């Protein structure tokens, strides 16, 4: 196969790859935009406002640092949902339960409720804690789903940019390949004419 034919073949493959990457970039951009829009819409509908400093000032420094950038803002992003879930709700659940999980507290409640001689005040206190932890864990799980989808949108957006850049690189390389093929054909014609 002549060099110019090989250059043209490789250049056409490069153009096809550029087109595929361009389409992939558009699809990834649409996906990122759609997911971000859905996350923002769903979180906005809940009308959750991120806590202000006074509400989290008693929490550990790492929790305060995670919440501070969003203080007082309406919750509309996955990053805000993650901060609220992991550094506000979970911090309060841990403080209330002494670090126990919902499953552990629920197990204690069930065991105590089967004891006929159980202290009723203790049983009520444990039942209230169990219910509060269940609600907190449920809300936390929902918010972390929003965070997961927000992260997928971010990844799709980054992948879209990478696809656009790669499409431009392949397109430029293909154009250069076609130029080289044309120059090689011209050189071959000049060489052939000179030989005759």
Task: Please give a structural write-up.
By secondary structure, the chain is mostly helical. The chain has one domain. 83% of the residues lie in helices and 0% in strands. The protein has helices at 3-46, 53-56, 61-67, 78-97, 102-113, 120-195. α5 packs antiparallel against α6 (120-195). The radius of gyration is 30 Å and the shape is elongated. The model has no long low-confidence stretch (mean pLDDT 90).
SSE diagram, text form:
Layout: H1 3-46, H2 53-56, H3 61-67, H4 78-97, H5 102-113, H6 120-195
Counting helices, strands and paired strands, the structural category is: mainly alpha
Total count of helical runs of at least 4 residues:
6
The count of strands amounts to 0
The rounded distance between the terminal residues' Cα atoms is 22 Å
**Rounded mean pLDDT score:** 90
- Whole-number radius of gyration? 30 Å
Brief characterization of the structure:
The chain has helices at residues 3-46, 53-56, 61-67, 78-97, 102-113, 120-195. By secondary structure, it is an all-alpha fold.
Name its key features.
196 residues; mainly alpha; single chain; elongated
């Amino acid at each position: 196969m002549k060099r110019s034919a090989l250059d043209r073949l490789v250049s056409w493959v490069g153009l096809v790859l550029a087109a595929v990457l361009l389409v992939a970039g558009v699809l990834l951009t649409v996906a990122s935009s759609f997911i971000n829009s859905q996350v923002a819409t769903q979180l906005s509908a809940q009308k959750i406002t991120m806590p202000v400093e006074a509400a989290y000032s008693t929490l550990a420094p790492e929790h305060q640092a995670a919440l501070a950038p969003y203080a007082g803002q309406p919750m509309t992003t996955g990053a805000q949902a993650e901060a609220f879930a992991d550094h506000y709700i979970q911090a309060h659940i841990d403080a209330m339960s002494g670090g126990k999980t919902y499953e552990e507290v629920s197990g204690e409640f069930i065991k105590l409720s089967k004891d006929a001689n159980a202290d009723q005040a203790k049983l009520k206190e444990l039942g209230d804690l169990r219910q509060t932890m269940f609600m907190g864990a449920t809300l936390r799980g929902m918010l972390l789903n929003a965070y997961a989808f927000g992260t997928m949108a971010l990844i799709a957006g980054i992948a879209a940019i990478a696809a656009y850049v790669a499409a431009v690189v392949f397109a430029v390389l293909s154009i250069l390949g076609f130029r080289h093929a044309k120059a090689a054909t011209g050189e071959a014609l000049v060489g052939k004419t000179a030989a005759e």
